[in-house]
Amino acid sequence: MSFKPEEMYCDGCNKEGRLFSWCSECPIKSCCQEKGFQNCAYCEDYFCDNLKMTFDKDPSAKERLDEIRKNL
Questions:
Q1: 13 DSSP assignment
Q2: Taking the CA atoms of the chain, what radius of gyration do you get in angstroms?
Q3: DSSP code of 62?
Q4: Is the pLDDT of residue 71 over 70?
Q5: In terms of C-beta density within 10 A (0-12 exposed, 13-18 middle, 19 or more buried), how is residue 10 classed?
Q6: For residue 64, what is the enclosing H or E element?
C-alpha cells in the first residue's frame, strides 16, 4: 500500500460516493460489501485480521469504529 491514512477519503465501505485509489483492492471494503454492512463496526466478527493492519497504521480508525459500535 502506498498511501497514508490522511489520503483515505472514501465515504464508507458499502456506500456510493467518494472512493480513493486502493478501494477496488481493499479486503475490508470487499468483506463489508459481501456481508452488507456499512462498515466493520456492524460485523459480529469485529475486530478481525483484516482490521489489524489498518489499526496498526491508523489507531484513530479503531477509535471511530469502537464509538460506532458503542452506539449500535
A1: T
A2: 12
A3: H
A4: yes
A5: middle
A6: helix 59-70
Taking the model in full, what pTM does it have?
0.72
- Contact, 72 vs 46, CB < 8 A? no
Residue 69 is predicted with a pLDDT of: 94
Task: Give residue limits of the domains in the chain.
Answer: 8-70
Q: Is 23 within 8 Å of 16 (Cβ atoms)?
A: no
Distance in angstroms (rounded) separating the CA atoms of residues 72 and 66? 10
For residue 48, give the nearest of 28, 33, 66, 68 by alpha carbon.
Answer: 28
Q: What are phi and psi of 11, to 5 degrees?
A: -95, 5
**Which among 26, 36, 33, 35 is positioned nearest to 61, based on CA atoms?**
26
Q: At what angle do helices 59-70 and 49-57 cross, to 10 degrees?
A: 120
d(CA 44, CA 51): 13
